[in-house]
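Q: What would this chain look like folded?
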Amino acid sequence: METEKKSIYGKKVFFVTQNKKFQSAVRKRLLTMEYEVYFIDDYRVVKNLLAESPDSILFISPERPLKQVGWRNFIKTVNQDVYFGETAVGLLLKGYTENMIIEFTSGMKLEAGIIQIKDDDDESGAAFQSIVKVLDKLNAKGMRQYVRANCIGDPKSQVYWLEGSIMHKLNIMDISSVGLALLLPAKNYAKMANLKSIPDAKMSIKDKQVSIPLDVYTIKQAGQNYVIVAMFQMGTNKEVLALIRDYVSDQLLADQYRKILNRPIDKVDYDALIVSNDNDEFEFDS
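A: My prediction, written as structure tokens:
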């Protein structure tokens, strides 16, 4: 059952990097391709995030604040921890020679491979194409076609429209790049039971208001209230869809951080840690 669930929902993909140029080059394209990706600046929260989703894919760019030896130790502790046995680790390296790669990766388990980043890499460059190949090989998408986010914790996310002189406002329950679910209070059901489309709908997300024509797929009961399931109409503005994907990504990242809110950050001094290649015995360099 657990294996079946993974094949349906796919995997989370974490990028641990402070390379903003790389992030801006690949993030939007990966979101457009409907991968569930997270860009993490602080390595100290990575193990907490993996503890929630150990069957994830983890790409690490070994830059500041750790030294090279610190990153080696960090990666090896991930490799050797039984809790992260299903985590596929990969490296994003910039400016490494072949000998440097061999020395740095000695003793590592890198199921997500080693990808070299060049200064001129963009969203169509060799590094990006290599990342996509790895994600597909590791079944990152599973059977899921679209990444969806729960919006119940964000009361500002709404759809609204005018019907004559009446303004309707409904909270968004969840959203993807193809459609959304709206919470319809039971008291308003009779007025909207035959709703087929909302051509003049506007949506409020990320402190922006955008036009988003909707086709109503179904209205179903959910507890004491109802849910309107609606699809975005064909021809929806590409910039609006990009805004939605960005919002979905932000919501999912916030959800991940909420899950680990009460966990202490990783305070291990990886620069001083000595990690064996053969077992789980760690010690500190005095």
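The longest strand covers residues 166-175.
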